Every structure is written in C-alpha cells, then in structure tokens.
Amino acid sequence: MRWPSGWRGCSARTPSDSERMTSEFRFDPLHRRWVIVSKERHRRPNDYADIGHQATLGSKCPFCEGNERQTPPELMAERPDGSAPDGPGWTLRVVPNRFPAVTEESSEGFGRHEVLIESNQHVAPPAECAPEHQLAVMRAYRDRVRELGRDARIAYVVLFRNSGPRSGASLAHPHTQIMGLELIPPAMRAELEALADHRRDHDRCLACELVGQELAQGDRILGGEGGFVSYLPYAGRFPGELCITSREHPAPFGELGENDLRALTAVLMDAVRRTCRAFAEPSFNWVLHTVTGDDVQGGHHWRFDLLPRLGQFGGFELGTGLYINSIPPEEAVLRLRAAAD
Fold first, then answer.
1. How far, in Å, are 14, 28, 65, 125, 256 from residue 232 at the CA level?
2. Which residues constitute the domain of residue 81?
3. Residue 315, domain member (yes or no)
4. Which of 82, 124, 160, 205 has the fewest C-beta atoms lying within 10 Å of its C-beta?
5. Which of 253, 92, 246, 235 is nearest to 173 (CA)?
C-alpha cells in the first residue's frame, strides 16, 4: 500500500513539550482518513455547557419494568425468576425497535433494527453497573451478533450505546441499539479495502500491525486484560477517543467464549469508568463494528470505539469530512491513566 504523503504511522516516540506543534495532520491508514490534532481548539469558549440529562419519568418510560406492553414482543430476555415473556421479572430485554431505521419488509433497504434494554432500572449509569450484569449485557451483544449473522442477507452489524444528552440518546433509560444491514457503510467498506490491500501487499493484517505498534510503543496504551487491550489511536478523531480490541487477530465476535467475554467486559468498563472520572461524566458513545459472512473470513478485525463527546461538530467538520481533535491522544491518555479507581 502506498501511504499518502506525510503519513508517519504511529509516531516512534512522544515529542517533548518544546517539540510539540500547535497543530498537526495525522493519517489513519486503517480508515483512510486524515485528522487534525490542534491543542489551540481546546481553548475555545463554550456557551453550551452540558447541563445534565433530563430523565424521562419512569412511569412514562417504555423501557421501564411494568411498561412491557409499550414495546414490541421481546426477542430474548434474562429472567432470573423464570417469569413469563413480555411482563415484569426481567433484568435485560431485547425487542424490535418500535421506530426502526431499516425494516425486514423493505426490498430497497433491508435490515433489522433491535433495542437491548440493558437494565430494569431507569437510571443505571454504565460506569456504576455491577460487573456480572455488564457481563450479561456483553453476552447479549454476542448472541445478537451471532443471530443476525445467520441471516445471509445481512452483511454488517453495528451496536451503539448512546449515553448522555450530547450523545444523541432520545431516552435516558440505558439501552443499546443493534442494527443488521445488507449494506456495508462507506466507512466500513474503506476499512475492508484497506485491510484487503495491506494483506495483499504485505501478507499480514493491518489492524493487527497497528495494535502491535501501539503495544510496542506504549505511549497511548490505557489498559488490558486477557487477550484484549484499550488504547488511544494515533489519529483519533475526538478528544479521549479509545479503541478496545484484541491484541491478536480475533475470532468473529459472535463466537467469543465466556472467558473472552469476561476479559473484554473488564477492559471496556475500565475504559468507561476512567473516561467518566477524567472528563467529569461526559456524554459518550460506544460502538461495536463487526461484519458477517465472507468478510469475517476475509480478515476483518472487530473493535469497540469509545467516543467521549467533549465538543461538538461545526461547519468545518460537516463541510470537509475532516475532524479536529483538540487534545492530543498522548496527553489524553495521561489524564485517563490518572483516573484510577
């Protein structure tokens, strides 16, 4: 693969304060996009401070226990007391999205859109979630990815968790949206092409190579457990952006075993807790990217992105497709490392 002019990959070392430039272009070879790292942007005034999430009253929330008739019939649920479906007694539920972005009935844009209701508690911040319950959520992620992947019409599965008013969440009740699409989105298609080109030219996985570089250098590594690691990408788009993935080329996400799920959950939740402490409980998104069918066998390397919403898009980002990251990842990781339990 020929890299664009100016690409330096993962910097061989972290520059000193005297060497660090005010702004810098960085290229992400996996996603084939440029990012501008600009510390000065962090100095901008902000008249739109996060004023907190006005939670919907539990009595009116369709995701609260006792309001099961306000959702479509459940696809799966954890019911420790053996209670009947579509009634109280659950700890998490998966239901079809009542307002789907894609539907099985469409011949022009087939897809499946589900909601994982993560808790029967209306206010349950993920950073405060009990480890065993969060493991159950991760287990449900795996099971739904596996189930959607069995549909030959689905090529791409994305799970996204919006938390907080700046994240795009419409309901405060903790939930994850799960979408299976027949279309591979342009960003993922570019990633698959980069992986395929690199494997053809170098006979190795580009994602594995980038993770290996991060591990060898260490300057942006946050943590890890078992076969999984969390790090701040060299060309991260957002302040505090984190990647959580496997150290080596992974099995398909839908095939992860119990030990792997436990280790992955621990790494993800450690990153979430540190993010909440380091950046004063920000809104955030986490996104699981995975593909199904032939692209799984073709070398896709799934990952979670954890994206704190410390700023907002403006005309530059929307007009150019370029991102401006106002906190260099080498600095953001120090703040996250200091935010220990």
1. 13, 12, 37, 23, 24
2. 58-181
3. yes
4. 82
5. 92
